[in-house]
Amino acid sequence: MNTNDYVKFYQDYEEMCAAYQLANSIIYFDKTTIAPKAGAAMRNKLTSILEGESFSYMTDPKNLEKLEAMLKLDDLDDITKESVRQRLRLLRDIRIIPKAEYVAYQNLIADSSVAWEEAKQKKDYAIFEPYLKKTIQALKKLLSYRAENGTPYDMLLDDYEPGMNIKKYDAFFAKIKQELLPFIQKIGKEGKQIDDSAMHQHFDAEKQAAFIEVVKEYLHFDASKCYMGVSMHPYTMKVGPGDTRLTTAYDEDFITSSIFSIIHEYGHALYGMQVDSEYDNTHVLGENMSMGIHESQSRMLENYIGRNRSFWVNNYPALQELFPQELGKVDLDSFMKQINISHPSLIRTDADELTYPIHILIRYELEKAIFNEDMPLDHLDQIWADKYEEYLGIRPANPAEGILQDMHWGSGQIGYFPTYALGSAFSAQFYHQMMKDLDVDSLLAQNHFEVIAKWLHDNIHKYGSYLPSEEILKRVTGEPFNPQYYIDYLIQKYSSIYQV
């Protein structure tokens, strides 16, 4: 085979991989939004069979042999070579796993996700516990096949953020504990307290949905490329070029929950939609981005943009109009203080910026103990609650406020959580540079989010996964990752809000 033959093979190979991904992605979106619950067991069984067919094609020895040969070609273009390299990196995780075990695991995590949803609705951990134990045990077994350096948890961390490991995360979270935890405690003791009771009234879900449409228009949400649904836990998926799906969830007792969840998810969606089209035919480069960078984009929109006063200059009147009784007497300045309040809370997705990394720290320490220290799996719900009491001084009243609040563990996404804190720190460094390049406040106040979106495209989004996160950080900010931007931003912001 000559180089052109290899390139043609690879284009066909990527297209087939994308076809399987398309089918499974649409099925997943359907089952988490509108699919009848009674069909879950059969759906999960059949989709695991489909996953098995995808597995067989991707790991076919003949295909793997050609992929590895392509990396040795001297005249292969850089984009294709990097795409092949990343595809092989993804395949390293599954190519040595017996197909039967892979299919059984896919079926397990699908059933586990269904059990999680039921358990959360009923606030009953006993429904989910056996599935979680099986998922953890199965994932440990799959990791045992991988002949890689590092511990099992190191492997999982590297899966979601290439190059990250326990040593690096330990140093990062040590800084969080040393500099932010004392400040959080100081805010609680010395800060001028803020009454946010106005945010915790009854807010009709249909009216909330009407306001989400206002937010979508402000953010230039393109319905021809992106679709929004409703699910128990918000998420985003890029099905393929020109087809991105995201969801939100409505809490009728907390107005900002759905607002900030959709802004967060749109950060993910915008990133995927703004990857340069030259990567459309090498699907892995358009959809395999570092989760640290991905979370930096969602957290940037949610917090640096969505909690910015200038964002609300135009949008808050529309919210007041929909909820005149609830918010009519709450002026913009008071509203801004309330949406930026900081206090220990139980739900990660509703947590304020300052305490948010502590939610991730808790999950990080639990995951590390489970995978590297063989922590017993009995009573994980109580161990979770103990951690919250240790770090934030509060304890879940029920499992839905505790271990059942997130969907990640039920779907086998262990090692993902730390990227939320890492991404938050990345976003502080990116935003610091954006503020140098753009008058962000004026752009937001004048309804010109498209200028901000273009800056994100030109500096971050267009690269997809072609460049690693460290290289993107250096290109945008002129320096490697520096978590001090994140620490300084949080302390400065909340010192001003709480007058400490």
TrEMBL record:
The active site is at E265 (proton donor/acceptor). Zn(2+) binds at H264, H268, E295. Keywords: Carboxypeptidase, Hydrolase, Metal-binding, Metalloprotease, Protease, Zinc. SUPFAM superfamilies: Metalloproteases ('zincins'), catalytic domain. It is an enzyme of class 3 (hydrolase). InterPro entries: Peptidase_M32_Taq. GO terms for molecular function: metal ion binding; metallocarboxypeptidase activity. Its cofactor is Zn(2+). The keyword Zinc applies. Broad specificity carboxypetidase that releases amino acids sequentially from the C-terminus, including neutral, aromatic, polar and basic residues. This is Metal-dependent carboxypeptidase. It comes from Copranaerobaculum intestinale. The lineage of its organism: Bacteria, Bacillati, Bacillota, Erysipelotrichia, Erysipelotrichales.
